[in-house]
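Students often ask why we bother encoding 3D structure as a string. The short answer is that it lets us treat folding as translation between two languages. Here is a chain of 501 residues written in the first language.
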Amino acid sequence: MDATLARRSTMGATPGRAELRPHTPATGAHARGLLDRRYGPLIPHALLVFIGFVTLWLADAPATTLYVTGAAVAVIFPWIILLEIRRAPLGLSPISFYFGWNTIALGLAAIHHGNKLADGIPIRFSVQTIYPDELAAGYVMYLLGTFGLHAGLQFMRPLPRPGEGSPPVGTGFLALWSLGVFMRFIGPIIGAGGFGAFSGLVQWGSLAALTGFVAHQGANYRRASFWILFTLGTAVEFVVNLRAGSKAFLMFSFLPAGLLFARQRPLRRWFPVLGIALSVFYLGVVAPVVSAARQSAEVAGENQSDRIVRTYTQGGYEDGDGIEEQATAFFERSFEPIPASFLYGEVERHGYRWGDTFDYLAYAFVPRLFWPDKPTVSRGGWFYYYIGAARSEAEATTSVAQTAAGELYWNFGFPGVLAGMGALGALFGFLWRLTTAFPEQDPIRLVLYIALVFNMIDMAEAGTTLVNVVFRALVLVPPIFLLDRTARKRAEAPSEARALS
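And here it is in the second language, the structure alphabet:
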């Protein structure tokens, strides 16, 4: 795979000059209409937030806000995704992935919770009960946060200039794939997770390399050799992700397959079939097997992947919930505005915290190397204790997210949600800018890009998200700067030699 990419980067290239491939309209960012401009996609998003606030203000029943706004999300978010695909050369981007995930989480799941409100079913948040008006307000508040995040991303993101072509394909994709597999399979055994932000990035190396393979070799999908390598890479990704025991990680293994079917025009007609097949696989196999494995008794010397495989081979998961029940459970898990709704109620009862919950930022940036006993930065255990599910933070056995929007509202209200999420979006956009408009051409940039894509749905708190972004910048800005400087010197050397001759 790596050798093939290397050959493609050198064939037909003029010495001392970067080979530029044509910039096609299907993957470009030409500003033809209002919605195609940098801030164009914010227009339908702003309309969606407006619908949310209007229904929150005028509707008699909180369920109406969830019904109307959730249905609008199911239309407007896919529209934003299509606008993004037109401007992102890779198709997959932090924006398209974020809105794809939230089409379900804030669209279909919102309608599901509207049904629960209409039927008088209590909305539970751990040991707490969420009142209907709090749920509707928290939902709209969360939507406002998505708008702020989107605005910050659009402000800082890179966009290819009209007529700009992608640079030559870099080398090192095979090494990146090997390092990613090593970090997730062997790393936990030797304690490689102690490398902090570096290990957090490199764990996506194999998926990033497989994505790069699809981006550069996808046109060869008619060849048997392509499918052998692609199937093998996907299988290895799935097996390695078993160790994480995460339903989401297991399904992320098939992201390159979705990218392949979306990018290659002859395969697009099969894209809905692929989507349905993966949905059935998730609801019928992955979700019930992993859930049953988590509840099964531990066996000495057995790791997470062993337990999942044992549960699957024994077939006990088949006695659990069916596909319909698994879909309902997925809607329950994915509806992230519930913690934000609880915090909306906390503000109504006790007022704003005015920055008190961000006290962990005072020590978050101190390396544990210099402070071995540094308190944990994650607030999940503390929040689990705060909502009354544990007698103390030390006894908390579960981590519960406040969500970034929820923590910002708890401290600073609606203005804090809009400004804070906008700032986080701008920071994410800064990392995105580091990857350039063509991240698939370079392995280091691509692994940062893939990590950034998945970070978009991993914002347990505003403060920890900020720490995450800063550490990623500290880890990758220096090597990217040095590699770019080296590349420029190599490109300048032949020109200087010709000038002297």
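Translate back mentally: The two ends are 39 Å apart (CA to CA). Keep this in mind for the problem set.
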